[in-house]
Each structure stands twice: as structure tokens, then as C-alpha cells.
Amino acid sequence: MLTAPSVTEIRRPTTQEEEIQKDEHAIRAVREQANMRTLADFFVFFQLLITYRKPMIVEEAIVFGKAFEDDIYYRCPRCQNTLDREFLAYCDSCGQCLDWRDYQKARRTYIKPKR
Question: Is residue 92 one of the residues assigned to a domain?
Fold first, then answer.
């Protein structure tokens, strides 16, 4: 059973180097989606990049198995990839900042095991 993390577990202070790495990860993810050819494209790219720093609420979880809810994997609200661990500050795949305040209310999708 999951327990609610303390505020320090969700948002621990980060070093400037960690912040730069997170920004670079988000920039790489956005560059893959954007093909900047004009100044207008650059402004669209910049606006999209800023949205990665704004926390998005984790609203969906995938549950494997039906009897126990031990195998719960939460999904990133931006890229829809499953998160390897709970309470990460940023998605490992796209760099989106994550908000875990209402994770208990996340919509659950149950996947039945194959027999």
C-alpha cells in the first residue's frame, strides 16, 4: 500500500547542476517535436518549453493484477509513459515537472494477467 510522501520527498532542494540537466532533458524532448525554421517557430518552441517547468497533476495509473494493487505504475500526464518510481519530481522520459498532490485520486486502468 502506498503512503503519502512528505513535502520534502516530493520537492527536495536541487542543485543548479540538476536544474540544468532537467532543462536540457526538456529541451531535447521539445526539439524532437519542433522543427524551428522561423522566428515564430522559435517562440512556439519557447512557450512549449516553459510548460515543462509547470507541474502537471499525475491523474492516471495502470494496475497489473486484480487481487492486489501492488503493481501500480503511474503515467506521465504529458508523454503518457509509465513512471519507474512514484513521487519523482520530473518524468524520466520527457522531463515534465510532476505534481503528486492528488495521486490517490488517480484514474486506475486494470490490466488482467494473461493465462
Answer: yes
